[in-house]
Amino acid sequence: MSLLKMLPLSVAIGLRYAFASSNHRFATFIALLSMIGIMLGVAALIVVVSVMNGLEGELKDRLLSSVPHAVVTTDSDMIVQDYDVEKITGIKGVLAVAPQITDDVMVQGRNGIYGATLLGIDPKSYPGIDLVRASAGSEAFNSLVPRSFEVISGWDTLELLKTNISDEMRIISASYVKFTPFGRVPSQRLFTVSGAYSVGGMPSKMILANIEDVRKLTHMQNGYVSGFRVWLEDPFEIGSFTEEMRKIDPSVTVKDWRIELGEFFQSVAMERIMMGLMLALIIMVAIFNMLSSLAMVVSSKVAEIAVMRTMGLSQASVMKIFITEGAVSGIIGSFLGLGLGLITVKFLDKILNVLGINLYISAGGSGIPVQVVTMQIVMIMVITVALSFAITIYPSIRAARQSPVESLRYE
Questions:
Q1: H or E stretch including 292?
Q2: How far is CA 366 from CA 201, 217, 219, 276, in A?
Q3: Distance CA 293, CA 139 (A)
Q4: Beta strands, E only, 2-111
Q5: What is the rounded (10 degree) CA torsion for 231, 59, 150, 256?
Q6: DSSP string spanning 209-249?
Q7: Which of 140, 181, 347, 353 is most buried, by the most CB atoms less than 10 A from its CB?
Q8: pTM greater than the 0.85 cutoff
Q9: Angle, nearest 10°, between helix axes 374-390 and 258-300?
């Protein structure tokens, strides 16, 4: 009570109505349901958005580890090997650059022939931040010396071929065809598997070998490579990198990950938006329940409004009373939802394990990936609280426009 005395009169009366509505139990019950609905809606929205952020981030790290973020080349898919890479490394957001020779090949093992992508690399310039290198290990990469004819393959490819590390696989390239007494024969050679990698359960048909060994297989012209692979700090900023690269050197062409995975990540983003909209409807339903409960309270307090008006309370003050009363449920529900959502995100794996519905299997056993973005949480809170205030305007205007004479005529 002492706290209410320190507040403005209209706010104090509004809070008193909100927390002492024993005479209007049904309206209080509806308001309580509305507050619970807002709490659950905000909590669910925070959990879903955080999980979607985490899954998208993990997909970005793992899927884009086996697909180049960008490749700087020319229209002929060949570029000089001594190209000035400082033009590329000088662009903001570029982490590393390495030359490569790529070719679509057929790989033959004990279990048949399958398609794959052969990537010729220079182990010395291949960055350690790459997930493939981290998975295969530096020892396997260091074994890729010229004329060693060793390769590093994905585990899924080795399983298809029924091939193990130290076994041989035949790589067939159609980029160069030799003429023999038996006709045209594609260039081919036996390679030894020196290592294997995994990108967290994501299928990858990329096979790595020394750049000079791949040059020999494909007969790529000396002094040229297919392009320069670029690692970006944020692969989603590929648009700005491409634009900047074209300004620096209009003669080059930039190919990026969107060619192969653009539609997939667009579908993931669309799914996140649709899930957010569906959960936002829960909040909207709860907020409209607040409207109905506040309208019932206004109807039941006609006499009290008339008495306050005759005692000199202005229409604006009456509006503030019912805006305060209605907005309290939205504010309390929003902050309770914030706390519930953040706690659920923190202990999500444990909660799902207790319920027996944790079906997610992560690569490193770290559980469901979650990423809480502060700006998203702030936007959810601001929009929910703003809607809680906005929905009270119409009932508050109705209350303020009550005529004291008409209201007290039959009292």
A1: helix 258-300
A2: 14, 41, 45, 25
A3: 69
A4: 70-73, 79-80, 94-109
A5: -40
A6: EEHHHHHHHHTPPTTEESEEEEEES-GGGHHHHHHHHHHH-
A7: 140
A8: no
A9: 30
Q: Exposed, middle or buried by CB within 10 Å (0-12, 13-18, 19+), for 182?
A: exposed
- For residue 19, give the 3-state DSSP assignment: helix
Question: What are the tokens at 166?
Answer: 């130290």
Each residue's pLDDT tens digit, 145-167: 899 889 999 888 888 888 888 88
Torsion sign, CA atoms 181, 186, 187, 188: negative
The H-or-E segment that residue 364 falls in is none
Q: 292: exposed, middle or buried (C-beta count within 10 Å: 0-12, 13-18, 19+)? A: middle
Biggest CA–CA distance in the chain, Å, is: 114
| Cβ neighbours of 132 (radius 10 Å) | 20
Q: Provide CB contacts within 8 A for 100, sequence distance 6+.
A: 68, 71, 119, 120, 121, 211, 225, 226, 227, 228, 229
Q: Half-sphere exposure of residue 91, counting CA atoms within 13 Å on the CB side?
A: 27
- Work out the angle between the directed axes of helices 258-300 and 315-346 (0-180°, nearest 10): 140
Dist CA 410 CA 403 (whole Å): 13
Q: Three-state DSSP class for 7?
A: coil
Distance separating alpha carbons of residues 9 and 313, to the nearest angstrom: 10
Model confidence pLDDT, tens digit, residues 228-272? 999 988 888 888 898 999 899 888 989 888 876 767 677 777 777
User: Is the sign of the CA dihedral 328, 330, 331, 332 positive or negative?
Assistant: positive
